[in-house]
């Protein structure tokens, strides 16, 4: 084995250049803190992009993984397994769902959801009913199908021709959807309750209810992409509960595994029947290791006191960021729900969100962007108040270096 030191420069020598990672390399974490190769400590407000729902090295997740690792890792979907069945049952008990399909990532869960929507339209109405309505600035994954449904052309550039039958309406504009929907052709409307990559932009309640009504009127399925908003992120187990609008299909990933790759597509019995034996699959989807970890995550975050705590932490973090924004005149608003927050930059700072990420890292704080104009925060759902306070102090120091 090659024991030469591993440095950031090695990335440029051995990795495909589709990422541009920061200079530091984290080597260990605990709770909402990370340490790099030089043992420098960072407060983590990024959460692996809304993935580390219970922070780093959570004892419960470690225990679940170790216990399952000593029993069974993989058997393929030629056979089922106990952790997958337990997790599916739990998700059905806690949500609107009656059937679950497991995958490994948000993109895969969305791919399954979009395929199910088309298959359902084909099965019940014929091949003409295949069109999908999505929204500009949406993000649904990186497969060719999901990046085509997503409403950010930059992610599709150079990968055309894209799959057809996909239309993009304007988020929070019901009229733009009405102009596109067709009872003969539309099989589904796909929407994020809060656009994550598109700027942490929440849907208006009337908008989501309007989408539900339009789907009902046009025999179309309503698909909620809750890859980023799900698994407790908004202070509800899933954001549809916050809005009081129930979808036909829901996708979940990111925080579902707390850092272990796992995803799920949730739906009803009647709709699930369109994916009969052999119509879709995943080699690793529903593997025992992933499902055992996800079970512990769901068992933990579904507790009322944990979800209530998310809302309390959200209030503390939001108020802290707003205060810094007002003091230095850098934010027009702090929006979002729970611990998915977007701090919108003022006109003077438009396009400079990444500058704040770099400055924050210099001060020992990890944050995110959502486009060029929004600083995004997605920390652990159980981040201690002390870490929130220290992170805010470090962020203010970072801001001071930019505005001085």
What composes the largest sheet? 7 strands, mixed
Could you tell me the number of beta strands? 17
Give the termini distance in whole angstroms.
48 Å
Architecture of the largest domain, according to CATH?
A: 3-Layer(aba) Sandwich
Domain count: 2
CATH topology type of the largest domain: Aspartate Aminotransferase, domain 2
Please state the overall shape, judged from the principal axes of the Cα atoms: globular
Give the neighbour order of strands across the main sheet: 4-12-11-10-7-5-6
The CATH superfamily of the largest domain appears as: Type I PLP-dependent aspartate aminotransferase-like (Major domain)
Strand percent estimate: 15-25%
> What is the CATH C-level name of the largest domain?
Alpha Beta
Unreliable spans are none
EC number: 2.6.1.11
Subcellular location: Cytoplasm
Main location: cytoplasm
Binding site for pyridoxal 5'-phosphate: 139, 225-228, 283
List key phrases describing it.
4-stranded mixed sheet; alpha/beta; 404 residues; 7-stranded mixed sheet; Aspartate Aminotransferase, domain 2; Aspartate Aminotransferase, domain 1; single chain; 18% strand; 14 helices; 17 strands
Q: What does this entry look like structurally?
A:
This protein has 14 helices and 17 strands. It is an alpha/beta fold. It folds into 2 domains: 151 residues, Aspartate Aminotransferase, domain 1 (Alpha-Beta Complex), CATH 3.90.1150; 230 residues, Type I PLP-dependent aspartate aminotransferase-like (Major domain) (Aspartate Aminotransferase, domain 2), CATH 3.40.640.10. The strands form 4 sheets. The chain has a 7-stranded mixed β-sheet, with helices on both faces. Helix 6 links the parallel strand 5 and strand 6. Helix 12 packs parallel to helix 14 and helix 13 crosses helix 14. The longest helix is centred in the last third of the chain and has 25 residues. It is globular and about 60 Å long. The chain starts with 7 loop residues before the first helix and ends with a helix. The model has no long low-confidence stretch (mean pLDDT 97). Homodimer. Pathway: Amino-acid biosynthesis; L-arginine biosynthesis; N(2)-acetyl-L-ornithine from L-glutamate: step 4/4. Keywords: Amino-acid biosynthesis, Aminotransferase, Arginine biosynthesis, Cytoplasm, Pyridoxal phosphate, Transferase. Belongs to the class-III pyridoxal-phosphate-dependent aminotransferase family. ArgD subfamily.
């Amino acid at each position: 084995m090659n024991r030469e030191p591993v440095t950031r420069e090695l990335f440029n020598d051995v990795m495909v250049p589709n990422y541009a990672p920061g200079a530091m390399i984290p080597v260990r974490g605990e709770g909402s803190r990370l340490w790099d190769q030089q043992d420098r400590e960072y407060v983590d407000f990024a959460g692996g992009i809304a993935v580390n729902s219970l922070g780093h090295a959570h004892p419960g997740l470690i225990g679940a993984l170790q216990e399952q690792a000593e029993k069974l890792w993989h058997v393929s979907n030629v056979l089922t397994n106990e952790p997958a069945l337990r997790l599916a049952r739990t998700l059905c008990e806690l949500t609107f769902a009656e059937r679950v399909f497991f995958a490994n990532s948000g993109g895969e869960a969305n791919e399954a959801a979009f395929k199910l929507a088309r298959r359902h339209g084909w099965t019940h109405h014929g091949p003409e009913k295949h069109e999908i309505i999505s929204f500009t600035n949406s993000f649904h994954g990186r497969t060719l199908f999901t990046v085509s449904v997503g409403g950010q052309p930059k992610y599709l550039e150079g990968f055309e021709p894209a799959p057809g039958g996909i239309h993009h309406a304007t988020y929070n504009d019901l009229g733009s959807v009405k102009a596109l929907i067709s009872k003969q052709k539309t099989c589904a409307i796909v929407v994020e309750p809060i656009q994550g990559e598109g700027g942490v932009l929440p849907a208006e309640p009337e908008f989501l209810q309007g989408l539900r009504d339009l789907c009902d009127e046009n025999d179309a399925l309503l698909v909620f992409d809750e890859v980023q908003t799900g698994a407790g992120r908004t202070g509800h187990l899933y954001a549809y509960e916050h809005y009081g609008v129930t979808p036909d299909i829901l996708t979940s990933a990111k925080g579902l595994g707390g850092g272990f790759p796992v995803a799920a597509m949730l739906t009803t019995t009647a709709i699930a029947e369109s994916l009969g034996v052999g119509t879709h699959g995943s080699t690793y989807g529903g593997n025992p290791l992933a499902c055992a970890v996800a079970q512990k995550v769901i068992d933990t975050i579904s507790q009322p006191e944990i979800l209530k705590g998310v809302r309390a932490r959200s209030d503390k973090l939001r108020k802290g960021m707003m205060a810094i924004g007002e003091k230095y005149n850098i934010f027009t608003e702090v929006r979002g729900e729970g611990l998915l927050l977007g701090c919108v930059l003022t006109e003077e700072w438009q396009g400079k969100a990444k500058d704040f990420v770099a400055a924050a890292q210099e001060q020992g704080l990890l944050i995110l962007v959502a486009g060029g104009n929004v600083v995004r925060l997605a920390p652990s759902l159980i981040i201690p108040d002390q870490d929130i306070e220290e992170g805010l102090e470090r962020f203010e120091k970072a801001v001071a270096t930019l505005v001085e």
